[in-house]
Structures are given as C-alpha cells and as structure tokens.
Amino acid sequence: MDNAPKKYVYFFGDGEAEGSVEMKSLLGGKGANLAEMTNIGIMVPPGFTISTEACRYYYANDGAYPEGLEGEIAQNLARLEKITEKEFGDAKNPMLLSVRSGAAFSMPGMMDTVLNIGLNDKSVAAIIEKTGNKRFVYDSYRRFVQMFGDVVLGMEHSKFEQFLEAKKKLRNTKLDTDLDSNDLKDLVSKYKEIIIADTGIEFPEDPEKQLKMTIDSVFESWNTDRAITYRNLNNISHDLGTAVNVQTMVFGNMGDDSGTGVCFTRDVATGKNEFYGEYLMNAQGEDVVAGLRTPHTFGQLKKELPEMYRELEAVRDRLEKHYREVQDVEFTIESGKLYILQTRGAKRTIQAAVKIVVDMVDEGLIDRDTAVLRVNPNRVDQLLHKRVDPEAAVKVIANGLPASPGAAVGRVVFSSQRALECAGRGEDVVLVRLETSPDDVGGMHASQGILTARGGMTSHAAIVGRGMGKCCVVGCNDIDVEVAANRFTVGDIVVNEGDYITLNVIGDAGEVILGKTDLIDPEMTGDFKTIMDWATDAKRLGVRTNADTVHDSKVARDFGAEGIGLCRTEHMFFGEDRLPIVQRMILAGSEESRKECLKKLMPMQKEDFIRIFEVMKDHPVTIRLLDPPLHEFLPKTEEEIKETAASMNIGLDELKGSIQSLHETNPMLGHRGCRLGITYPEIYEMQVQAIFEAAAELAGDGYKVIPEVMIPLVGHINELKFTKERLIKTAEGVMKRCGMDIKYLVGTMIEIPRAAVTADEIAEEAEFFSFGTNDLTQMTFGFSRDDIGKFLPFYIKEGILESDPFVTIDQDGVGKLVEMGVRKGRSTKPDLKIGICGEHGGNPASVEFCHRAGLDYVSCSPFRVPAAIIAAAHAAIKEKKDDA
Amino acid sequence: MDNAPKKYVYFFGDGEAEGSVEMKSLLGGKGANLAEMTNIGIMVPPGFTISTEACRYYYANDGAYPEGLEGEIAQNLARLEKITEKEFGDAKNPMLLSVRSGAAFSMPGMMDTVLNIGLNDKSVAAIIEKTGNKRFVYDSYRRFVQMFGDVVLGMEHSKFEQFLEAKKKLRNTKLDTDLDSNDLKDLVSKYKEIIIADTGIEFPEDPEKQLKMTIDSVFESWNTDRAITYRNLNNISHDLGTAVNVQTMVFGNMGDDSGTGVCFTRDVATGKNEFYGEYLMNAQGEDVVAGLRTPHTFGQLKKELPEMYRELEAVRDRLEKHYREVQDVEFTIESGKLYILQTRGAKRTIQAAVKIVVDMVDEGLIDRDTAVLRVNPNRVDQLLHKRVDPEAAVKVIANGLPASPGAAVGRVVFSSQRALECAGRGEDVVLVRLETSPDDVGGMHASQGILTARGGMTSHAAIVGRGMGKCCVVGCNDIDVEVAANRFTVGDIVVNEGDYITLNVIGDAGEVILGKTDLIDPEMTGDFKTIMDWATDAKRLGVRTNADTVHDSKVARDFGAEGIGLCRTEHMFFGEDRLPIVQRMILAGSEESRKECLKKLMPMQKEDFIRIFEVMKDHPVTIRLLDPPLHEFLPKTEEEIKETAASMNIGLDELKGSIQSLHETNPMLGHRGCRLGITYPEIYEMQVQAIFEAAAELAGDGYKVIPEVMIPLVGHINELKFTKERLIKTAEGVMKRCGMDIKYLVGTMIEIPRAAVTADEIAEEAEFFSFGTNDLTQMTFGFSRDDIGKFLPFYIKEGILESDPFVTIDQDGVGKLVEMGVRKGRSTKPDLKIGICGEHGGNPASVEFCHRAGLDYVSCSPFRVPAAIIAAAHAAIKEKKDDA
Fold first, then answer.
1. I need a surface site. Which of A212, A406, B573, B700 has the fewest CB within 10 A?
2. How many CA atoms lie within 13 A of B37 on its CB side?
3. Residue A195 DSSP SS3
4. Average pLDDT of every residue of chain A
C-alpha cells in the first residue's frame, strides 16, 4: 500500500513547474497554463496551485482542509520566499501575493481575484520605502482592504464606496486620482472600521490569516447561486470543484521602467499574422481597462523599447509554437523585467478564425483536421450575411429570438400586402407581424427582414426566414403590435408604419434597432472556400438542402449542397397565379371539379420541377407531396374572405361555410399529409404526374434526373401502401406515354412517433426514410411549436430543458426514436437510405448526432448548408480520433 | 415417403362422419358441425364436405382442381346414392342436392345456398309422381333455375323478377302462391331463355354439370369484393379459403306428415331453461321466413305430434349436453322422419346470456371460467341502461356514433343555458350541439341525452357522456345544426327547439328518433351479480374508475370499482359557484392576485375531495392535478364574453385581449398539464393543500385515506422533479400543521411519447405510472381526436386502419410504447405500480392487452366498470388456459 501523503499543492516558478497543461481537471485551466508556461521557459511570477481535489475534500468535510494541506501551503510559501528573496509577512522585505480561482471550465460567477495579500500596516511602510511611491502603496492598501471586505467577507460594495465618495466630495473632485496618500490612508482606517462594524470580524493584519481566509472564500465561491445556475445551464458537474492559484505580485507601476499590457499573437479581427498589442508604462492592468489613459500600440513599443518588444516577440513565438493556437497574453514589466501573467486561446471573429486556421496549416503548425475542428459551425453563418457595423452607435429598443441571421434596414409595414405595395415602389421594408402564416410568404419575400412578436425558433416566420436567408427576429415579446392602429410600441416608444427600423441578428442576439443603420457586407474569402473544401473531404454524411425555388436551389448548390433533401411542393401553390386555382380546387364540391382545377395546376407544377431539376443536374431531388391542411390555403381575415369571395364569384356565406367546415381544433394533428393524399388521391396524382413529366422532358434533354418521391405524415404502413400503389400507377402511366424508363425512389417521412415505432414494417414499403424532426419533436414532446412561447423560456431558465428541442435535437427522447427508426428500418431493409430534413439538419449539435445515428445525409435550409458541412466534418474527424 | 393421394372430401351420413367439430379450419364451421352431429347420432341429411384445402389449391392453380378431387366427389356421390337409395341424375328416382359454402369464420358476402341441384326437365316428372304435388315441384324447379342464374352465373336478380311480375300481373295477383303449376312451368322456360340470352351459356340439364358449376361458384365467392372487404375489416386472412358442403335434399312440404321449423334449446330472449321453437307442417323453411303463414308454437307441437316433440326434445338434450351451449337448430320433417339441417350457437340477448351461463354452471354443464368467458364484455353495458322498447314503432331520422349507451327522451335544446333553464323547470331535454366543450358540462348534466353533429367516440361529448352514464350520440353527420335558427334539419325534416326527440344507443347503433318513445328499465338480475362475482374472482387486473363527483364514485363502487384511477380535478372548476373565481384567477395579472383567488377555491376543492374520499373509504384515489389549458375556462362566444365582462366588472376589450393572449394554435399540444403547474406553481400548491387537508380531516375521523397524487403531461423527468419537489413541500407543510403523518404516493401520467421512451428515467421519481392512452394515441398517431372525422371513417372503410384507435388500443404502435413504458419503468423501479386511465381502460380488447402488458389496473368511466371486470377476467382465464 502506498502510504505517501496525498499531494494537494503544485508549485511553479524559476523555470520549472510540478503541473502541466494536461492537468486541467486537477489544477483548473489557469493553474495548468501557468505551470505549462513555466515549464516552457516563459517568465511567470512564481506561485503555486491548490488542486481541485482539495476543494472537493473541503466540500465533503464541512469546510475542513485535508490532512497535510496546511503544511504543503507553508512549504510552498517558503519556496516562494526563497526564489523572490522576500518574506511573506515580513516588515522589511515583504512578499505580496495574489489569489485567483480557476476551475477546469471557464466559469463566470466565481470569485475572480484578490490582490496584494500580505499588505498590512507594517508592510506598507517597507514597500513605500522600496518603491518611493506613497500614494501608490496606500491606494493598493485601500483597494486590498476593500476587496477583502467585499470578496472574502461578502460585504456590499456600496459600504466602501460611500466613504470614497465623501472623501472626493470633500476634495471637490470626481476622480480617485485627485486623492492624495493621506486621503487614502484615512480611507484604509475607515474601511477597517466599517468591516468590524458590519461583520463583527476584525480585518486581519496577519498575512497568513489573510491568505487562509481568501483561499477559503475561493472554495466557497464554487457554490454561489450564480455559479450553480451557470453549471446547471451548461451541464457542468457540481462535483468538480475549483483550484486556487496563489502567485507572487508583480507591479507595472513601480516607475518608468515598469509597465503593463495585453497582446494577441495574431490579429483577432482579421486573422492576419501580425503581432498586435497595447501597453502603458508605469501603470497597472486596471488603468488600461478603466480607459483613463490611452494605451500605446506595439508600433510605439518597437520604437521606444526595442529590447522589450523583441523579448515579447520571442514569447509570442514560443507560445504559438507550443500551443499551436493564437494566444491572448497579459504581461507586466516590473523594473525592466518582463513577466507573463496569463495566456489563453484568443477570442476571434469567425472571419479571423477561418484565416488563422488556413494560415496555420500552411505554416505547418496544425493539420487540416485540426483546422476544420477549430471552425465553430455555430458561427459559420456569420460569414454569409450582412451585419450592423459594430462600431455604429445604435439604439436597441427590443430583443427577440435570433431566428435567421443577418441584418435588415427598412420602413415598418404591418401587412404582407403593404409590404408588396411598398417593395413594388422600390422601398425597403421590414415586415412586422404578430406571427406569420403561409399567406405572408409573398410579403416576406418582398421585405428586407421580418419581425414577429410571437413564435419560437421554428415558427413559420423563422423557418421561412431562414429558408429565404432573410434576417428574422421572432418571439419579440418586448413589442406590442397594434395591427389595427398600424403601429407597434415598446414601452413609451411608438413605431408607426413607415418609420425606419433595423434588425440585427448575430450570434445569440436578435436586436431591434430604432432608425436606419449602416450595414457591412459579408466577405467570402478564399480561406473560407479552402476550409469548406477540407470539411467536405473530411465528412461522411451527405449534406443536402431544403429548397423549393430555383433561387434557393442555386444558393444551396453554391454553398455546397449535394442535392435537395426536401422540396416542399405546397410552397409552389402560394404563387399569385396559382393560389386562386388552388382555392377553387379546395372549395370544389366534387372530385370532377377538383380534377378540373388540378389539371390547370399540373403544367405549372411541372414547370417548377423542370427548373429545379435543371439547377440540381445529376444531384438527387427529394420531392415531398402536399403536406399542409387545405385550410392553410384559404383566406383568414374578414377582408381577405370578402376579397376572395368577390374574385371567385361565390357567395360570402358559402365561402365562410366552407372555411368553417375545414376548421380544425388542432391543425397540427389534423387532416394533412398523406391523410389528404388518401382522401383526395387526385391531388397526389397530379403532383406525381408533374414530377414524372418534368423528369421525362429533361431525360429527353440528356439530364440524369432521379426523382425521390416522398410521402409525408405516414404513421401506419397501410397509409404508405395505399399512396404508393396509386403513385406507381400514375408514374408508370407517364413513362408509358413518354416511352421512357425513369429511375425513381418512393420513400416516406418519419415524423410521427408511430412511424418510428413501426419502422420495420414501414421499411418494407419504403426505399428511403427522411426524419422530419420538426413534427417528430412536436409529437414526441407534445409541444406545439406555435404555442411553446408561453412556457419554453421558463423551462430553459429553470433548467428543466437544457435547450430548445426545436433547435437542438433532444437526443434522450426524440433521438431515441430516431435511433429506433434507423435500427428497425434497416432490420428489414439493410440498404435503406436514411436522411433528416427537419430544421435540425442545419443545427451543428444535431448534425453530429445524425452522424452517430448512422444517417446517410442531412438536409437543411440553404444558408445552413456550410454550417452543416463543417459539423458533419467535425463528427467524422472526432469519430476517427476516437477510433484511433 | 407417404405416396397416398391427399384427401379433399369428407363424408357424413348414416351415423358416422369422417370429420368432427375440431376440424373447422379444414371443413369450415358448417361442415364441421354437420360431421359432429352425425357422429353423435343426430339424423342429418347425409352429404360430404369439400375441404378448404381444395379451395386453396383452386386459387393457387388458376381454378384447377387438385388431382383426385373429381374422383373423390364421384365416390362420395355414389356413397350418398347408396344410403338414400336414389340416384343423382336418374330420371326415375332422382337424388337432389343442396350446396352451401362454409368457411372457418362466419362470413357474409359469400355464396349462401343453391338448392335442388339435380332437377331438370326429366327428373321433375319423377318427383311429381313421387310427391303428387305438381305445383311444389315446378316452383322448386323455377327457384332452382333462378338461383342458378343468379348465384352461379352472376346474373341480376331483376332479370328473372320481371317475368314473375309479368305473370302475376297477367293473373291479376300480387302473390306468388296464386300462380299455378302451368304458370311456373312456363316461367322455367322463360328463365332458361333469358339465361342463354344474357350469358351465352345454356342452363345445364346435366346434374353433374350443375353440381360442378355450383361448386366452382362457391370457390369463386370466396373472393367477391364484399367478402374481401369483410375479411380486411375483420382481419381474417385471405388465404384460408372456403369449404363446400354438398348435402342431400329433404323436403318439409311433401305432405301433411312433413314440416319444417326452428328451435332454440333455451329461451334466447330471457335465458330461461325452456325449449322454444316454431314450426309449420307441409312447408319449407322459406315459408316460415316469408311470414305468409303464421308458424305454430312448440306447445301445439307437443299436443298434436307428441312423438315428434319427444324426438326433438331428445335432440335438444343431446345437443346441449354435447355442445354445452345453447343451440339454434333448424329441422325438417320429411314424411314423418326428423332431419336436423343445422345447429349452431344461438344468438341471445345479453340478459339471456348471463342467465344461461349461471344456470349451466348450476346444472354442471360448464365451469365458472367457461361461464365468464361466454359473457361478451362488449355487450355488458346493455344491462345497465334504459332502452327503447324494441316493439315500439319508431321513426329513425338519423344515425350517429353510439358514444354512450342507453336511451333518452326529451325536448330539443341547442345551448347549455337553455338546457339548464328547461331542466330547472322540470322539463326533460336533449342537448343538441355541433360539438361540446367543457362549458357544456353543466348543460349536459341537466339533459337526458346529448346529440352532436361532430366528434368521434372519444370527443368531449362522448367522454363526458359516458362518464355521466348519459345516452349520447355523436358525429351525427346526417343532421345540420343551425344554432342561430334554434333548429336542426335532416333532409326535409325540421326539428325546432322544444320538439321531442328520442336517442337510442344500443350495440353499434346510435339512433335519432323523431318524437317521444317509451323506454324500458334495465333489469339488474341476481344472475348478473353472480357472474360479476365470478369474474371478479377470476381476474388479476385491478379495475378502478374515472370519477370526479360523489355520484360517479357511488355508481362505480356499486358496479365493482376498486378505487378511483383518475379523478380529474378540473371538472370541479366548472361549478357555477367556482367558474367566476377560476376565471378571475386566470385573468389575474400577478401571482399575488392569483393566489387570492386560489385561496377562495381551496376550501371548495377540499370539500370535493372529502366527499369523494368518504365514498371510496379505504380504496385508493388517484387525483390528477389540473390538466386543461386555462383558456378552456374562459367564455367563447361574443355573448358569453359580454356577460362575463359585465359580471366580472372588467372592460370588454380587456377581456377579449386576455382571451386572445391565451389563444393557442394547437391547444392539444399547448400550455397545459404540468406545464401549467410549473409556470404557475401556486395552482398545484392549492390543489395539493386541498387534497392533504381533506385527507387529514378524514384521517381524524378514522378513515384510511391514501391519496395518489398524479402529475399530468410529463414528458421529461425534470418536469416531474420540479413539480414533485414543491408538491412534497406543500404536503409536508399541511401534515406538520395538522400534526399528522399521511401515507401518499406521487406518480405521473404516461401520455406523451417521450415519457414512454424515457420511462426508465421517469420511474426514478415516480411511485406509479398511469397510461393516458387518449393523449398517447393522439400524439403517437399525430391524430387530433377532435379532427379525425374528416379522414378516419375513410381509413376504416378502406381498411387502412382496422378500428378507431381511440376505441381499441393500437397494439402495434401505441401498445408498443405502453410495453416500452412498462419495461423501462420497471427496469429502474421493479415494484412500480402501473395503470391505465385513458378511455381504453373500459374497452374489452384493450383491457386484455393491458393484462398481457403486465399492468396492475385499468380505470374507466363508471358504466364501463362491469365490462372491464369481465374483460379482465377473460384475459386471466385465457392466460391460465394457455399456460395449462
């Protein structure tokens, strides 16, 4: 048995460290990096890290330290004293320390930093003597006492601020810097008095006690409410605990040969391989942050302190070569000596990220797989859209859900008709609605952007907006839309029809900005293309697109889509020349008059298919037969109904009666999909005829069209059988008439739980499956995506659900049905082709799931294609690494 | 190797038969019974059965006979000739034959019977000589030729009828019997002429040819459209084939010592052990059916032909002892000799069925298990309701779905308010609505019966109607309800408010009858109680009830319910004194004012629970917390809204705004169930407080109340966790205040597919599961039960679905999720209590499924309890038999 006492403290300094970057879970991210830098010869102020294990012990044992920890701390302090040639708590030559928390995952809400531990009434004098800067030392002391009261003893900030404010008033100034050393010294006394008055605890003059109390408070900060909430939201275990980093202080404000700064090893805005940094001499980090003095650029550093610049360049070089990643570095110069306080991966724009990884591959720093893995698919769409100039001064009046990225500027309109009118006059408009319906598609097309007060990330507006690549903010509860009054309000702000607004959707933000704003064009650089090529090579999953117009098909092809996974035929029915015929068909009393109308629609739909087949050339096109309930095609408002009745020349009451008779309590679960195709077989027959006539025509022109006909909403094998039988009959009729033999597939959506449960039976009749995870999510959860706004935000906030299941596939529930569908489907048809065409097909986390679930392809809206390709590549590369 | 030729024909006659009753699949039901009777010494006209195997061969080989079949037929014909001492096709002493189809399952749509095969121009003369009855013989000949043309050659009936009509016109009569032998002889010639003219086939004079063609046509009749549809609907394999029974003719009209009749071995109306029959001398079976002569009772037979009566009594005795079941027997007396033509299990009323099996157990004929198995649970509810006197002359004007059995007479009203007004004046009313909503519950209660134009077997009206045990016809498409005009129409018939109608729901029929009708009271006999006791002893499954009123609870207890499986707390919110408070609560702007209203509701809800607990005594009561979306409690029509606004003293626009903001696109999938309990925890807190205060109060009075608190609509474990945590806190608060320790369970509905898929996780937090198969069916199929009327009837008709999945549980889909839920739930909690509380809990087929799936109990509406008990007993007995 190994009876050696457990080790809880890891030293770093003087060129060597007991830890390394591999030990993040034990030392936290910060501690591991400090150790790593020390090991590779970077000069960091020496110190030691108390491991997360100590923190876990502390929690498991009611705040007790594990045996030996106190001894280890004492030993490491002694080691520090030896290196620095100072003594902790000494009245003559005192060593000062900083204490920082540092968990394995970066985590807001925990204690950040306490500086200058070791200062007390005695050591202050010694340091004044050493620095010759009395004001600086008392200011440091004042800050330390305040920080200690605030962070360690949990007092309110304002308790200290009141004295500071009073002192400034007395001196008739607004700036801390106008207070002199006596003022500050006086504040230190006042602070100590309020601490004991407020907490009953005397400010500890004993440095060891200061240190022990600070370490304890770092441990405690692991379990603040904010930290717990953050971990809940980010699915981080509460059992990990935090490490504590104790480090010797260095000062950039010790005189003119001292200074402080930050630098990035490359330009994080553009990605260019240029050393970028800022610094201030005789200053502390917070002086840079506070913005009271303007920092200098590295150009100046190179000119004025060429030696220091070269030293920093050497650090840059060493860090990048070592970490093979762009670093964000904090440094301090104390009396001409350079110390690196921190290094970490630098945050960067997606544009920069792409350029950097391509460059690094060229430089031989990383391989292509690593490069692809470093491109966050969730941010890729930022490369594809205009955006609001981040430098511009804007007035954000409301925030909604970022449904479709980009930016839009235009005059507000409140109806699709107005949108069409204004756009017809060449005006830019933004369509503002409570929510949108298929009737609005024309108006949405005519608008620059769409804003809705209701709906979630997969509401009609969101899906159509994304499909069109149009900026779209939905579920914006902040605004009150008063349609009748042609205005919306946000608190006191009234926005009338014709007023300008700007929408800005970037990352997690869906902003509504008052007025016109300047937009920046996207830059589609060569590097982006390069990384997309690498990703395409790396992935196994096919990536198709959801498209039902020539425009969308083209865009998607340009973005790398390998075919169409979902062509929604109903969208073609909303065209201005078609809707009246469709409505006549719906209102027809007999099969005969329905067929009459369908006959008129056939050539139009055929023409649509020809155009799309042409764009897609030899790539597969999956066409879904009519899906939505018929009432979606009928007018809704009183006015629209009147108009339609007049134009169709039928009685108003008759029309209302027909609309009433088609009304459904839960249209989501109603008479739609193949249920329509079964009760009105003539509709599907028309569509199939159009598909095959189009294919035959192009086949004659030498195209190799392979239509994949998809039956929606199948829940029972008999539904598929019934529909397929008629479909084949129609298809064969066309082929016979044209004297051609066209290869085609017949498959089905798997979007009803029952279809997943009985996938083995269904696969016997289907040549492919396509998971419709939008509907599957609705039915598996029992969530209407149009109605979840009333409780989903609360669910997310309370951590009942980790994320919106309409955005990221719910792997534990819906995902289980997908896996069951795949397993059962392939059990009776091993070569079954399986894809996904719900909105999840463009969600990176969901794409990775699809890869693991063994799907053949994902299909998503055109503007999501690049993100899906990157995500598919990630999945394949990770799998390869796991296998290795 | 066995090279013996296969046997296709089975002889019966002269006291012995090659077949038996065990060989139904080979000989069909009829053939097997003819063989069986022969074997037990009953005199049946000798004959032979061609097996179903021959039919299958016929279909597999394009209408060819298997090798040896023709030879076997010839051999068997010879054997018949020997026994009867007649010759087939002989001109002097001809043997005549009948041919009947007979599959393993009784199956309408197939060929029934061809009689008198062997008659031709030659044999007619011989038989006239033998019988001395020329008219009878020519009539038989005419009928045979017509039947041959009609059945064998597929000609239209009317082709023959025209000649008959012409002949009767000529004779200036309306009765066939007024035609003499010459008329009939002439008709024979005419019939033969039209046969050749119409089909090009000459009527075959050759008896062998007649026989062969008839046998072929029996084979063919297996695949008529009607037969195929019937098999599709009843899930009978198309591969079984039919047998063909060839039997020698006997004649009851050969003179005064001949006759024919039918008898039942017991009284099939009352079940009394009395020999019951009717007969006519010198007559054929069809004379009895045609009603031209009034048959005599067996009382007369006993008096006039005591010998024959004794002989029949002996047959009765032998058949009942042998079959141990009441028989429906057809007999013919030919020249003083008794022949039994057919015996089969007798159809009987459910009242008779119950008495008969109880008697047979007393008589030692059958055991209790057999007795219970013979009571059809689907018919049990006919014992519990009033019904329209079947003797009464009524005018049925429309038919709908038989949602809730019984009968109701009353004046028509078109609104719940009118129903309440009229009922308040002591009038009997029938509520007629397009469809009902929870607002109508009061009006439904006040009505004798409910009629709706829309909705299916599980629509609101149907469920509430069944729950109340009130006669209810739904989905009655025949009627046009004109609410504004206060009337409904059926074609030309107009029914105004105040007019009397009668509803009659019995078995599969849901009739709407014009005017007042006399009703018969149900008889709850001692035998019914006996059989229910036996069933209760035999079953394993618990049977509980869905009840939320004292009345329902009492009824269910009387019917044998062992507790409450589903107490819907929301129904209690619709009381006249409560709804305004509930509405105020819903419209409250703050948590505080919501709590204010809830405080007022609490004592009322507590009182409800006390009353129900009292009725249920020591039996478990499962209480489901609030489930429906809040908007269900708000007024719907313009008028109701105005009224509510006035009575609540709030602005009309404000109220409309609130209603609008609560509107949902798909309420079924919206803000309801635990989603409400999570976003407004104070509602569930009030309910839990009421439950536990009620339990505590009764516990003080010595009751042993064990509340089972059920959380609805859980789809994710975290929903249950969140709700349960608060629930326990509230419950413990009450117990502490009362100083009591009440045992209770916390469980959840499994009604969302995701809950079934993740049942292992959910079981960790649940002490019981209750499958809510209504919602589970809606979501698993993606069927809104309020909207399926548009396609479900078509689905059933086309055989896409076998049955309405809201009536009989869909074992292949929904059932798989139930099984998964049981398996996964018990994988983490082996002693998990599991029940079902959807409407399927009262559907016999579904109850049997629940037994097999390993559930602990089913729960159903009070009037379904006896059926569920019988079905549960069936399941247990069948399992026992299968195990043995």
1. B700
2. 27
3. helix
4. 91
Q: What angle do CA A71, A74, A76 make, to 5 degrees?
A: 110
Please tell me which of the candidates B757, B795, B813 has its beta carbon nearest to residue A754. Answer: B813
Sign of the CA dihedral running A739, A548, A546, A669: negative
SS (H, E, C) B50-115: ECHHHHHHHHHCCCCCCCCHHHHHHHHHHHHHHHHCCECCCCCCECCEEEEEECCCCCCCCCCEEE
Q: What sign results for the dihedral spanned by CA atoms A550, A556, A562, A563?
A: negative
Band of the pLDDT at B458, cuts 50, 70, 90?
low
Average pLDDT over residues A119-144: 89
Nearest to B813 among A678, A757, A812 (CB): A757
Q: Per the CB < 8 Å rule, is A813 touching B754? A: yes
CA distance linking residue B42 with residue B265, whole number of Å: 15
CB atoms within 10 A of CB A361: 19
**pLDDT bucket at A870, cuts 50 / 70 / 90:** very high
More confident residue, B129 or A723: A723
Is B837 a residue of the active site? Answer: yes
- Could you tell me if B353 and B271 are in contact, meaning their C-beta atoms sit under 8 angstroms apart? yes
Cα separation, A770 vs A750, whole angstroms: 6
Distance CA A875, CA A881 (A): 10
Give the span between the Cα atoms of A850 and A875, in whole angstroms. 9
Cα torsion A183, A187, A190, A192: sign: negative
- In residues, how long is chain B? 884
Whether A97 contacts A247, CB under 8 Å: yes
Tokens standing for residue A631: 């009432």
User: Which residue of B666, B781, B814 is in closest CB contact with A668?
Assistant: B666
Nearest to A380 by CA among A812, A847, A776: A847
Q: What angle do CA B823, B828, B832 make, to 5 degrees?
A: 70
Which among A483, A481, A480, A449 is positioned nearest to A464, based on CA atoms?
A: A449
Tell me whether 0.85 is exceeded by the ipTM.
no
Interface probe, candidates B711, B721, B774, B791, chain A, greatest A C-beta count within 10 A = B791
CB of A506 within 8 A of CB of A405? yes
Predicted TM-score of the model (pTM): 0.80
Instruction: Give the contacts of B71 (CB within 8 A, at least 6 positions apart).
Output: none
Query: What per-residue confidence (pLDDT) applies to A841?
Result: 93
φ, ψ for residue A449, nearest 5 deg: -155, 170
Put simply, the answer to whether B795 touches A666 (Cβ < 8 Å) is no
Catalytic residue among B263, B385, B445, B460: B460
* Residue A202 DSSP label: P
- CB distance B812–A758 less than 8 Å? yes
- Exposure string over A245-274, b if 16+ CB within 10 A, otherwise e: bbbbbbbbbbbeebbbbbbbbbbbebbebe
Residue bearing tokens 């009505």: B447
Write down the H helix ranges in A568-621. Answer: 579-587, 591-616
Take residue B297 and report the two structure tokens written for it: 């009772």
Q: Which residues of A touch B752 (CB under 8 A)?
A: 780-782
Indicate which residue of A263, A385, A422, A460 is catalytic.
Answer: A460
From chain B, the residues in CB contact with A664 under 8 A are 784, 786-787
Is B780 within 8 Å of A753 when comparing Cβ atoms?
Answer: yes
What pLDDT is recorded for position B1? 43
Q: How far apart are CA B859 and CA B468, in angstroms?
A: 15
Contact present, A457 and A807 (Cβ < 8 Å):
yes
Measured distance CA(A723)–CA(B205) in Å, rounded: 49
Task: Give the pLDDT of residue A116.
Answer: 92
Verify whether residue A674 is a known catalytic residue: no
Q: What is the pLDDT of residue B467?
A: 66
pLDDT for residue B519: 86
